[in-house]
Every structure is written in C-alpha cells, then in structure tokens.
Amino acid sequence: MPVIPLAMEVRQAGCAAPHAHPRGQLIYASRGVMRVVSGTEVLVVPPSQAVWVPPDVEHEVYFPGEVSLRNLFLERGVSGRLPDQCTILKVSPLLRELILKAVTIGESYLPESAGYRLMTVLIDELCQAEPTELRLPMGHDERLQRAIEKMVADPGAVETIEALASVACTTPRTLARLFVRETGLTFGAWKKRLILQEAIERLASGQNVTTVAFDLGYQSLSAFIEMFRQSLGASPGQYLKDTPPM
Question: Which residues pair with 14 in a beta bridge?
C-alpha cells in the first residue's frame, strides 16, 4: 500500500522524543501548532500547513498546546517524489479533505479499490503542495550560535548586527557572512523568520495581534500586519484561521 493513514490523535502539550521512521511521514495538525526540530533546523507548523519528514530522518516534535493530529506514512517509492529534507507544505482545501478522508479509510484498502484510487489522488496533490518559508536553519559555527542564542532568548529585542557581533566575539562583517554561509539567509531575513515563527506560536496560543506586534519590536500594528502579509501571503488572522476537523 503506498499510503498508510493513521486515525486522528489528540495530543496535549508536550513533545515526541527524537526518532525516525523507515517510511516518509506527513504530519498534519488540523488544530493547534507544532514545532518540529530536525538537525540544525526548526520548523513551526500552523494548522493551515503540514510537515513532510523523509524516511530515516531523525526529528522531534513539540506541541505547545493541544493538537489534533493526522499522520500519513508513505512508502519509499512514493517518498522519492517529495523533498529530501523536512519541509513545511501548504495544505490546500482539497488536500485537507483528502487527508481527513484517508484516515477514515485507514490501511485496509485493496489495490484498484476506491480507497486505493483516493490514495493515489492524495499523493498527486501532496506532490504539488507548495512549500513555505518557515524553516529556521541554526548553523554550526560557535560564533553564529552565540548570536542566534541571544536572538532566540528575546525575539523582540532590536538587535543590530554590530551588537550581536560583540556577543559572538567576531566582527559585524564576519557575522553577516556566517549567516549567509551557514543558514542560506541574510541576518535580516533570518531575524524576520524568527519573528514570524514566534508570532505564529503566540497568536495560536490566544494572544491578540496588537500585543504580539509590540512585544516583537514593532512600533505600529499596521507595520507588523503588512510584514506578516508580505511574508506569508495573508494577515495574521487569515493565516491562522482554524477550520474545525471533521
């Protein structure tokens, strides 16, 4: 069977310790936010999206609050059509309905049956899902990690590259180069992703947009909403709109 869907699982706040699977895994929370850590990358996954984990890739999953999970396990032959690294994917309305239907079918379907045909459509839709830019690479260099630790400890602080370079015991130019070399992002782009991840988690926990905007260093609510919209294609309220699970 190309896809093995698992029934809905409700998880309370907590975490799943580091582990890996022989099959590829799609983790979809129709309610709640997940934080997935794989290697030196952190991924924050809101309800409108899912995370793809390739076969044999070690990862750990954190649940800041209660979540409603659906898991799909894909055989290796199918997994090869999807990214070879952990990736956040947008879940279209069609893909969402296919996932929800798949878990009601489970793994007891026969080749050429209606269930089998649904799984092949699900795979096609999944392979066309658009990735999002909410991955946050952490890098390996100790100087870069010192700067990142400072930023993560207080995402709303207005940190300059000069101030962070002092914390990292290097020059601003070297630190800027380390960001690009180790994470693939400029200092400014990395900082923006950190703010977006923090904003999504805080908004999902029930904090209002105004409080989140000012806590994360924005001087005006409109500037924060515009940054959010330009980065993720929707306002904070639209982006985190939760559709109740079926």
Answer: 63
